[in-house]
Amino acid sequence: MKNILLTAWLMACAMPVLGQIVPQPVKVTAEEGVFSGTLTYEKSDLNGLPENAYRLTLKPGHGVLEYRTEEGKNYGEQTVAQLRQKYGKELPAQTIVDYPAYPWRGLMLDVSRHFYSLEYLKETVRLLAYYKMNRLHLHLTDDEGWRIEIKSLPELTQKSAWRDLDRHDSAVIRRTAVDPRIKLDPRFLQQVDGRLRYGGFYTQEEIKDLVQYAARYHVEIVPEIDMPGHMMAAIAAYPELCSTGKPSWGSVFSQPLCPAKEEVFTFVFKVLDEILALFPSRYIHMGADEVDKTTWKQSELCQNLMKQENLKDEHALQSWFVERVSRYIKDHGREVVVWDDALEGGISTDINVMYWRDWKANIPYESVESEHQTIFCPGTPLYLSRRDSAMYDIYHLRSLQELTVKRKDLIKGVQANVWAEQVGNANWANLLIWPRLLALAEIGWTPYEQRNWENFKRRAVDQKAYLKGLGMDLAEESPFLTVVQTPDAQARGVRFHFEHEKINPTLYYTLDGSLPTAKSKPFTDQLLVKGPALLSVGILEDGKLLTPVFQRPVDYHKLTGKKVTYLQPWNKAYPAAGELSLTNGLQGSDYYKDVNWQGFTNDLEVIIDLEDLKNLKEISLRFMQISQEDVLMPAYVEVSFSDDGKNFKPFKTIQNDVDPKQRDLVMKDFKASLKGAKGRYMKVLAKNDTQNQFIFTDEIIVH
Ligand code: ACM
């Protein structure tokens, strides 16, 4: 009850008063006048607000920052810094009460694939703090380079911090010819015996300096030593650590450490001893992603260990490794973080899970159902190294919201990751990070009910100017168009409204699939489409069409707006628009993640009440196959009819004829004539033979 009242009260507050700050405060009360003096600080219990809350009271002639902990004080100071940035000396009088929505608000930098200077890490820490984020996760080791001095194992950096230029470097060099901004940082290139080598590492002194610097800003540096996979750099220096004694590639990933060799644990614990001494962080990340288990299958030592420990497969062996290393970390008073791959063989509930594999969208649900603290960094949209990651998607991360409502206690927070294969220098990293990270800062800080996309966009304008003022090249805004649409029975059409990152742009559209131009029809708020049409909507800026352009088939057909009853559920990771999805008049693009596609890991089985519809001519529904992502065709689609909605008589069966081994995208329309069909109710069954992989469809079209 208290929460509901609190929420209602907060909603009633004048939200945009302080509208230029990212993230947005929980509560702002504006007052008359300005504050221009010196702030006083007071420790206070803040009437039981969270430990990291603060209250900033600015009145003419009187300014106080109240806080319970140093962390809260830091957040208050960052707010003052943001206000001063915007207003200078005279700050508008107001009271701000504020605290974060989630405890973990992070950014990960992959310093293994490409290396960034210590100064850059510090600069990043300062900006994270400015936007009230609190974790910098460093991916310190991977196949491509070992980046942290370990004194007891000097060869890790003597040998494995350096490499001959690899295929990623070559790709970056090729792209440099097109866009020089991406170039490899020359400070990390060296001629050694006539060979050009790339590399670098942080000394322990440098790490101590960074950790101390970050502590001042209440940013925790979370080290990741990725194991047992992604260990090629270490195995190159100490080949006895892998099962075959020689570094090699498996079918997809590099050969991992051998969990059946005791010297592997001696090695891991030596590394961890120094990591634990260097990083006072509450969390240590041990990776555990993408482990190629081929050599474990072939190793007699591994197979013997599995028998001895009663481990049923290599996933269980991976879990056994994770548990043993985790125990060591926990025995030293720290918590463990792993990538979500580690869930496959089952792991202790006190291990924190980072959800990244967006194509397995069930993972956050499984992670929470198995009682793991979960950090959200799904590849789309939170791998900022992917250029298609859009602020709108970050701001509206659906699974985060859903699971927060269900189990807030298990949602530790959010993180964005920059994987550096194609990121040759720190300026380019910045271009990928900013301004998109602003959207993450806001969702990590501001409760869902208080977020406001339009308001955020306006506040982000000032922040972009601030970041540019620091000398940064910023990514261009993506005009990314997201659609809100409803069938309109009276107008016999579908009404559209679009969301995007631009402020008040004019949108142009065509209905024939051609790209919009300045001569196309404009609209600002709503658009009614009757269909069938291939709708294209885009934003024109100075006469230039921005990409991406929204393009989807639209059709106001006989079933549009009709109620659909589900006999089997959709997979909750791909609900599309829920019960409205299959009859809303809108079809998907050619990718199942565009939110127009509904996914099923069981059969699709639905009943549609046709009411008084007569003279049905044809039914058609599309499925797609991307077998490498576990997206398959149904075995068949069966259409049945009934008068009472209970006893159905099969009318047509449409068989699949797409080869399941075809790896690339295939689309198929399952289509049949409905001439002669009778009955008030129609049932559509799409058979999912696998009962665990996905089938996806976007619309059941009947003419
Ligand atoms: C990952 O992207 N392999 C965690």
Largest beta sheet: strand ordering: 6-7-13-14-15-16-17-18
Mean pLDDT: 92
Small molecules bound:
acetamide
Radius of gyration: 28 Å
Main sheet makeup? 8 strands, parallel, barrel
Overall geometry: globular
**Helix/sheet category:** alpha+beta
Percentage of helical residues?
25-40%
How far the N terminus sits from the C terminus, by CA atoms, comes to: 50 Å
Q: Beta-strand level of the residues, as a percent range?
A: 25-35%
Low-confidence stretches: 1-20
Q: State the helix count.
A: 18
Count of beta strands: 36
Q: How would you briefly describe this protein structure?
A:
The chain has 703 residues and is of the alpha+beta class.
What does this structure look like?
The chain is α+β, with helices and mostly antiparallel strands. It is 27% helix and 27% strand. The protein is built from 18 helices and 36 strands. The strands form nine sheets. An eight-stranded parallel beta barrel has the order 6-7-13-14-15-16-17-18, surrounded by eight helices. A five-stranded mixed sheet has the order 1-5-3-4-2, with helices on one face. Helix 3 packs parallel to helix 6 (204-216). The longest helix is centred in the N-terminal third of the chain and has 18 residues, at 70-87. The protein is globular, with a radius of gyration of 28 Å. Residues 289-290, 339, 356 line the site of acetamide.
